[in-house]
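Subject: complex prediction, re-run

Hi both,

The earlier run crashed halfway through, so I resubmitted it with identical inputs.
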Amino acid sequence: MEKYLDILEIAIYGSAVALILIGLYGALTKKSLIKIVLGLSIMDSGIHLMMIALGYLKGGTAPIFSKGFENSADQMVDPIPQALVLTAIVIGFGVTAVALSLVIRLYRHHDTLRIDEIKNLKW
Amino acid sequence: MKKYIVLGLLAVLGYYLMSIFLLVDFGLPHFAHGVKDVYLSSSKNILKVSNAVTAIVVNFRGFDTLGEVTVLFLSATAMSGILYKKRHDIGERSILFPASSIIRSGAKMLFPSITLLGIYVFIHGHLSPGGGFQGGTIIATGFLLMLLTYQNYSVSHNRLVWVESVAGMLFVIIGLAGYFMKGSFLENVLPVGELNDLFSGGVIGIIYVLVGFKVAAELIGIIYTILHEKG
Amino acid sequence: MVGSPVLFVAIPLLAAFLIPLMGMIWKEFVRIIPGLVLAYMLVLSVSLIIYIQSHGTIVEVISGWGPPVGINLVFSPFSGALTTLMTFLGLLVWLYSHKFKRNVDYEPAKKYFILLMLMVTGSVGMVLTGDLFNMFVFIEIVSISGYGLTSFFVRRDSAEAAFKFLLMGAFASSFLLIGIMIIYTQLGTLNMAEIAQRMPQMDYHMKVFSLIFILVAIGVEAETFPLNGWAPDVYTQAPGPISAAMSGIVVKAAVYANIRIIYTMYDLQGAYEYLLIIGLITFIVAETAALKQERLKRMLAYSSIGQMGLAMIAFGIGTKEGVYAALFLMFSHAIIKSLLFFSGSYLVYNKTSKYIKHVNGMGKYLPITAFLFTLGAFAIIGLPPFMGFWSKLALLSAAADSNLVILVAVILVVSIVEAVYYLRVVNRIFFFKKRANTKPEKPTINAMIAMLSLAAIVLVIGFYPDLVTGLIERAADDLMDKGRYIGEILSKN
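This time it finished cleanly. Structure:
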């Protein structure tokens, strides 16, 4: 069980960090605006995964007191990261929606999605 | 060249992130007296809400949720402001291929059940996994299906504005009711009932239903704005 | 009690949800309601400021759960003074743009005023909140309304500036989340007072990492070097009043968050030196960059960044005099820079490129506006009898008291650079001939009232600085006294 937990730890934290890095890489190096927005979303999901993983408790149950689980508060996983992640997802969605609409506006003006062709302001 | 600089920076960041997380013990309690225990016990004993996440989202940290709903409202507003065009050049909905008859009849059959599922999810947000945000999103996917399938299907813009404004206002008004009747904003003003009962948790269930309506209206509005963008 | 801090958030949100409905009844409501709400917020904050002088800090509990469990709002002398400043500027920005947007269609005007009102609300919320995650939510409210407002004018390159801002803002919010989660996993709480109390238990490495993540995130909003790449573009492309609101309201809120986190939450020794060094770099780089700008609003943007660097230097000194000087600087910068943005936008009104050369000879055609701009320029350089003089003097004496002679010298030298680029513009306004293709645009009556009231404040406080020094001194005391902040909040339970 202990060994299994170690592997799980590396797998989950590793994939969270990997998602964050992939997202950052995409957002920083890609030339297409859509890909940049995608990179931001990937980074967000990495952070959400990390938040949920930080609240995990070994052998824990979902933090819901449904019938038969009324007295199991000490075995429940931490509910706060789950509540925070809900907020973070909604905010991430809002930012992505605004970003996409800005991309549409840029496309309308410049007829291109390549960031190196949109250079009226210094980047 | 730029790529290698970025890769180098990312390697450093990844190393530090990984070393932070490996310091945090996975699957073990990290701290002795967190607010977590208070949340779990009072959501069961005082608020009588079985889903502790819902209790946190709507009551303990309800102010965050109000802010969150505002963020959605803002992004819908900002989006339609950014994409604003004068009336005469609003485009037709851009659908490349008309849907086949299988999809048409399938969508028609699925739409009521998707809506029903969404309503179920947000009504039972305080009893089971789910809630206003999830339910609202499910309803919005139903409308997305209809909008993608039927080229002439349309949602009344005014009706969406009404739903989202009234739901948002009622959320704030319930909060203010708590402020004037009990002395603190968003405090529960209704009887809490029994654990695992549909009518439990006082205003929590009502607020989550309102959030559900608001999120659904907001998301449908966003989808509608983007679909009407001329390519 | 006259009201409660929670109304600062509840009333504007109620109004924001109401505006689309009221707009269906009478279109003018869209413009009027935000003004009424902002005026109400100003009245509320002034009356609360008076109330706390006799009754002490207000800690407002939300949803009936005492501080470590629920979210709380803190109206202390420090946050109260900032709230008053922000709501006052918000009201003036509304007044300035009320008629300014007359030629804009109904739909964009509705969006503009909703976003403006919520931007002010979000900044006020950032200042008042006592909960770290709640601060994140308010930061996002401010940023998203900022993106929307920046790209308000379709004809300019505003979408590009807004996208740049959004990219930085999105990275910042992700980093802030990581920082918050590191703190949460170590201490099990999100309340800022309780975090401050438990901070000694935290592992040193964790402390440093979380502080770095949070400072990077908030540094984007607070325009610290090198995260301020968005600011010049956004200030250039956004409508004039929005530039004023950004530099006067949003940045002040972010600096507040920065300072609250470093001074109250963390007990790290090196953090003050960090502020000092970052502030110094920001100040020097921004002021030299401003010297070679060709566009008026870009120059003002760099000047704004430089002034925030100055405020950070003052915070970094770490003594009570330093904090006092920093708060005075923030206050005077918010007023003066708004005046400069307001009058500057009219001096280059009709040109989309907004080059400095377009102000040539405007002194003859727009005498009052040109005079007000000159007043603002003199005040921000720090010429005596204006407001900027007293704040700079406070900073220099604070630095001298702490034996930082080199710092005094650097600030004085860079101030000369500042004087050069402002006086260059003033020179062009009065002593150059008007260019043939620029058309002067008369300010509307509302804009005139807004500018004149700001100018009046600059003059009155220049002659009677005692009017505000008491308030600022109490705010500085409040910030320095960390134990009292923690005690006041946690005793509310």
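Chain B has a mean pLDDT of 85.

- K.
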